[in-house]
């Protein structure tokens, strides 16, 4: 496995060694409760106050409150609760204070979600309104000018977590001042700490939340700045810590660690300067442009943090590029970490008017001010490797299947499977049951590789995917009108099936005839009986991902436990030196970073090419096969499929290579 290059600092950062040492020392030596009056308590209190004093200097906040809490989400809740309670009281007193809760359209979800939640809980009944941003991701000050007189509370982040776009806080302050807006103002400063100068005390900002883990402190520690005189309502009540304003015994290890980071910021020797960070970004931009010639950057670099790049490689889905980067050991993300699991298009890029096709390709690369030159050198080298991997042809004959010019690719989406039969020599292919969701992607792949689509077919009732692919390819025919077969190299695709049900048989005819023994693949809808048309060696390719590969004999998914943990995998490989370790990641991932498991190099058979290789992998049935992939999901499917095809000695590595040790 290649060395990990962590370029996802906007999601979270590693912990500064000095912060780890400070946390350990706090737990070991200053473990007292800072509320206790004995010496142990006094030591803890001194530690806490030293961290607070450092925070005040870093934030430029001699006055007001600087409170420790669990992180920015709590800080945001507290600020929203405080503002809404004050607004409610003002309204109850009949004072004019606006009826809008205005938040930047690109704010972290914690902001609009908290506004909606507390507006509902408190019954304030204010109107939530997103303040639009321009194409460069900056707040529309003209719209703010229009709405400011109606605004009761304004929330605008200092820098965006997905794009790095730095807000024009001076411009926003000027608009609020011009319009004599009485609105309270929160600025989410999470991504600004350590990257932008902060002078909160000299600003009009009422609330500023921070999270330690975005700048080399651990998770679970944060800060909230509250301007002197700004309304405040505690979110947590109890033991009266933080002068009764945020109860709960302090997270002293976290405070000590954050204190160490703040001290390092003050000292100026630990982190890289703004100009050095700009130079780092320049190098990464150069490497990205060289690796991906069509690359577009989704936010203007001159208005972005020097530590964040958001880019798209046209025609390449974010998920595909992320897998290639991950294989090369480069950890980046498609957007915010919170939305990574949902795979939804980015609302931040949507708000900037980035076309859907481009935002579907977006990748965020972010680093922290601790980045060193050796890591950049390695990152640039690995980015170049990713570029070379991306350029590899997906539709190429398998090097494992000697002299077989045709190939078969499985295309999955939302539980459905489709198939692309291709003839690499003549650059032509036939699509069967391609799911609608991947029709665009498939068409892009075919166009990029210069393939001609001979036919777009379907076996079941649902022809939407086939039709969508045909449309994407500017029209592709269905089955030939004369009813004859389609030729792909020296093989043919023939039509079969009874009673109007559609099925297709693929194989190399002998003496011009495709008899049952020559059929290699059968493409069939559910419940189709094909015994008379194909022999037992034929593999049935169906449209349902989990049951996509079936033998004509059993047509059932694999039974029994197929997953092995890392230790069990080691035992298997020790006991069976002849076992095959098979990397089922796609070819581009494999070539961006090959897998070695317990000293054994893995062979690459992408999951999408499993049908073609099923016979090769099963061999005579005696040799164990251990499938591996990134997270364990694709390899588990491969193992189940091979079991279902009658090979009992197929396993997968549980948790994938990420958990192997
Ligand atoms: N605000 C911004 C801009 C962020 O990037 C994040 C974290 O991603 C948050 C708020 C929430 O921070 P946390 O999850 O640490 O509470």
What does this structure look like?
By secondary structure, this protein is an alpha/beta fold. The longest helix has 21 residues, at 39-59. It is elongated. The model has no long low-confidence stretch (mean pLDDT 92). Bound molecules: pyridoxal-5'-phosphate. Pyridoxal-5'-phosphate (PLP) is lined by residues 71-73, 108, 110, 157, 161, 188, 190-191, 211, 213, 336.
What characteristic shape results from the CA principal axes? elongated
Number of strands: 29
Total of DSSP H or I helical runs spanning 4+ residues: 19
Q: Whole-number radius of gyration?
A: 30 Å
List keywords for this structure.
29 strands; alpha/beta; binds pyridoxal-5'-phosphate; five-stranded parallel sheet; about 650 residues; 4 domains
How are the SSEs placed, and which strands pair?
Blueprint lengths: L4 E2 L10 H12 L10 H21 L5 E5 L2 H21 L7 E5 L5 H12 L5 E5 L9 H7 L3 E5 L13 H10 L5 E3 L20 E5 L10 E5 L25 H16 L6 H18 L4 E2 L10 E5 L5 H10 L2 E2 L5 H4 L6 H5 L4 H4 L2 E5 L6 H18 L15 E8 L2 E8 L4 E5 L6 H10 L3 E6 L6 H9 L13 E3 L2 E6 L6 E5 L11 E6 L14 E3 L7 E3 L11 E2 L1 H10 L4 E4 L3 H6 L3 E2 L2 E2 L1 E2 L5 H9 L6 E4 L4 H12 L5 E4 L8
Parallel strand pairs: 1-11, 3-4, 3-5, 5-6, 15-16, 20-21, 23-29, 24-27, 24-28, 28-29
Antiparallel strand pairs: 2-8, 7-8, 9-10, 10-12, 13-14, 14-15, 17-18, 18-19, 19-20, 21-22, 25-26
Helix pairs in contact: 1-7, 2-7, 3-4, 8-13, 14-15
Bound molecules: pyridoxal-5'-phosphate.
The site of pyridoxal-5'-phosphate has 13 residues, from helix 3.
